[in-house]
Amino acid sequence: MTSPAPAHAPATGTAPATATEAAQPPPHPAWLPPEAFRALGARRVLVHGDGTLVDTVHDEVARACARHGGRAERTTTTAAAAGPVDLVLALRDSGPLPEAVPPAATAAPAPDDGPLGEEGFLLTRVDDVTVLLADAPAGLLYGLFHLVRLGGAAFTGEQPARAHRPALCRRMLDHWDNVAVHPVMGQVERGYAGGSIFWRDGRPRGDRDRLRAYGRLLASTGVNAISVNNVNVGPTEALLLTDRLDDVAEIADLLRPYGVRVHLSVTFAAPVVLGGLSTADPLDDGVRDWWESTTRRVYARIPDFGGYVVKADSEGQPGPFSYGRDHADGANLLAAALAPHGGVVHWRAFVYDHRRDWRDRTTDRARAAYDHFAPLDGRFADNVVLQVKFGPVDFQPREPVSPVIAAMPATRLAVELQVTQEYTGQQWHACYLAPCWHEVLAFQLWGPGERSVADVLADVPGPGPRRGGDLVAVANVGDDPFWCGHPLAQANLYAFGRLAWDPRLDPTALLDEWIDLTFPAATVGDPALVRETLHAVLDDSWRTYERYTAPLGVGFMVNPAGHYGPGIDGYEYSRWGTYHFADRDGVGVDRTRATGTGMTGQYPPPWSQVYESLEQCPDELLLFFHHVPYSHVLHSGSTVIQHIYDTHFAGVAEVEAMRERWARLAGVIDPAVHERVTERLAEQLRCATEWRDQVNTYFFRKSGVPDARGRRIH
Ligand code: GCW
Fold it and tell me: Could you tell me the distance, in angstroms and rounded to a whole number, from the CA of residue 564 to the centre of ligand 1?
């Protein structure tokens, strides 16, 4: 949602500014500090193969070995074989394998024998040699970082061969970075980590080391694609497609060694604003030719260019509706231009009327994406990826899964998550989002036992055509020394990449991975305390955030000025279509077929029934689907009003506990990290208290029902 906020929004709606200094020291190493490479770097390692990504693997190994006392060797198709080794990373098709690979390591087929593909790898350990084999260079790169995660465990005992492959082919981060500073949205739209790592004041930022470090971090989690500019494309950003293509090519060159392909957000009006044509009509031959020749030039400059990202007919961006065409016409136009080069278009489904009349209770923004796109299923070209926000509205801390995902079996889909914490505390609040994403990915679209969101994206067989898809997220990094403003928000970036690689991974286990890498035992005073504290602070932090903000899935009680802090009626009488309808008797949005907007009917059974039914609807989504009296009794046994009071008091108490736990790490971890998190937790407590007091007071005044436990409500 484009906020109507002035450049200097009131402090209540805007998170405190993050200081960015002019000359910056190297950024925090995040989850790749040198110490994380100790186990690998202390070994005799052989890298076998050719190619840019193999060079990257070898460089990593060589640096780790130089630091930790091991020995790095390289053999290629032509170079001679090496002496005894502890670890071999080899491309299977790079000529005969070096003698150092024990024959048994290649003789035994992996249990799930099948092609490793472009990115997979096979790991085994035989006769005291750890052997990692791949059929393509990217497989070696991902294998290398897998070994880093394993640490010493990669070098013990015998280990049967195991194949590793990503569940999803494209694992992508979208940057909402502006090239020119936007008068309201700034350098990075919804960015909470300082400036952009790519752009500054209309020009490339030029910090090549920072971009290489970013590519490396992404590769280590499995992310293999990014878009480098905001989906709201302004006049300066539009030029990246043509006159300023060199700026994009430079980023692509820096990220290529890490297996990350670059995509570009483009404006649908490009033929008019860049090409001087009188129309951007998708069925016009001149428009078609313009996109084809422009795209040809892009590929001539960047041969591995990923494709386009398009926000069309959405929040004021131009689109096919202006020409009486639909979104299949629009998306297929760009897809046709990209297809000969192997590119894709990510076409966003975030299409809704943002000029509603709040008085009209018959229309429903949550219905919009389904209403626009479900009828188009089957009409999209093969290289269109329809990019759907995970929920029907807009990245709220709690939403049901979007009904679009089950409704479009003949369309390739991307599910879009938001790593940048627009609605989840703007990287001032500790809010570990992996549990939320895990719930979304594990949601069984056609009921218990049926395929999940992750299965659909991974193209797991089921009824109907198979299309597969991507996981995409809006990035949370900037030029902040800690990358993300909040050092603990690094865990979200890490977990996103890992879940996109394997959506079955458990969020708590992922946090352990991140802790092991970011805070290696040898670098902290008390490793057990560090682990215990980070789990205590982060494991449940998303639910804590939910407790002190909008209740029971109703969403959008944020301050409209910047989406930070409470603004309970902030959107209630606005044009944006996000209402809670609280009055003296009750609260919530009636989306039932029986008496409401009928949105429950967009789900297949059993969910269409479960959400329709007041008795069956899960508590956490109750107010998303139903308008109920304050006295309504939840499955938990509590009334809605008492639940509101209880969760808001509990949420603040939990933040207080987080703060106390964190204080115990003083002197145990890097003081700069400790201090930054301490500062943020103080602000989180202030803001959570504000949320609690405003929400509780608001509902007490509306309902007149006192808190059963007699706590202070204002
Ligand atoms: O969540 C909303 C944001 C807008 C954003 C929009 C979108 C890039 O408030 O800032 O615009 O979503 O996803 O397009």
Answer: 14
The pLDDT tens digits for 178-228 are 999 999 999 999 999 999 999 999 999 999 999 999 999 999 999 999 999
Task: Indicate which residue's Cα is closest to atom 7 of ligand 1.
Answer: 1
Q: Kindly write down the DSSP assignment for every residue of 515-559, as one continuous string.
A: HHHHS-GGGSS-HHHHHHHHHHHHTTHHHHHHHHSS-TT----B-
Are the beta carbons of 50 and 94 closer than 8 angstroms? yes
Residue nearest ligand 1's atom 1 by CA: 1
Beta sheet of 44-48, edge-to-edge order: 71-75, 44-48, 87-91, 129-134, 121-126, 159-164
Active site residues: 315, 394, 422
What pLDDT is attached to residue 5?
35
Asked whether 350 lines ligand 1 (CB < 6 A), one says yes
Work out the average pLDDT over 480-509. Answer: 98
Residues β-bridged to residue 186: 182
Angle of helix 507-518 versus helix 434-442 axis, rounded to 10: 140
- The mean per-residue pLDDT over the stretch 628-635 comes to 98
CA geometry: angle 686, 550, 407, nearest 5 deg: 140
Dist. CA 542 → ligand 1 center (Å): 21
Please tell me the distance between residue 177's alpha carbon and the centre of ligand 1 in angstroms. Answer: 12
Ligand 1 neighbour 232 (Cβ under 6 A): yes
Write phi, then psi, for 418 (nearest 5 degrees): -120, 105
Q: CB of 373 within 8 A of CB of 406?
A: no
Q: Give me the residue label for tokens 């092991």.
A: 516
Mutate to test the pocket of ligand 1, among 232, 393, 416, 419 (most ligand atoms within 8 A of CB): 232
| Direct distance between the N- and C-terminal alpha carbons of the chain, in angstroms, rounded to an integer | 31
Provide the residue count of the chain: 714
Return the ligand 1 atom nearest residue 389 CA.
Answer: 13
* Predicted confidence (pLDDT) per residue in 443-453, tens digit: 999 999 999 99
- What confidence score (pLDDT) does residue 465 get? 66
Q: What is the pTM of this model?
A: 0.96
